[in-house]
Design a protein that fits this description.
- It is a single chain.
- Helices cover 39% and strands 16% of the residues.
- The protein is α+β, with helices and mostly antiparallel strands.
- It has a four-stranded antiparallel β-sheet.
- Helix 2 crosses helix 4.
């Protein structure tokens, strides 16, 4: 499959356009809220570029943008959220902005480094 020629969200140009329309602060806040209420919570895109939020990964039916988990305060290595690696690979600027929004929503002020 050539992602640049697909007539769906997998078209890289269309995907960037859809991502740039998102309010990343809202995405981050909702994903964190879901994690706090339901553990885990995640945000994902459907084939039309619409953002959705899932209480569990079993509800996801699209490209995952980020996932947040309820953090165990006794586990220093645990991170409160992650941004999907495909987002880092394709759109580092958007991934960075989402990582910052997630850090602010969590209240840490700093984002974990991508792996």
């Amino acid at each position: 499959m050539d992602a640049n020629h697909e007539s769906s969200i997998f078209n890289v140009t269309q995907l960037r356009g859809a991502l740039e329309q998102l309010d990343l602060n809202e995405v981050a806040t909702r994903a964190i809220e879901l994690a706090e209420d339901y553990m885990p919570g995640c945000a994902w895109l459907d084939a039309n570029g619409e953002i959705h939020f899932a209480e569990t990964m079993s509800q996801v039916d699209g490209l995952v943008l980020c996932q947040a988990t309820e953090v165990d305060p006794d586990s220093p290595d645990e991170v409160p959220f992650w941004v999907a690696s495909w987002l880092d690979e394709l759109f580092q600027d958007i991934a960075g902005a989402l990582r910052t929004a997630l850090a602010l929503a969590v209240g840490t002020g700093s984002a974990p480094e991508p792996e």
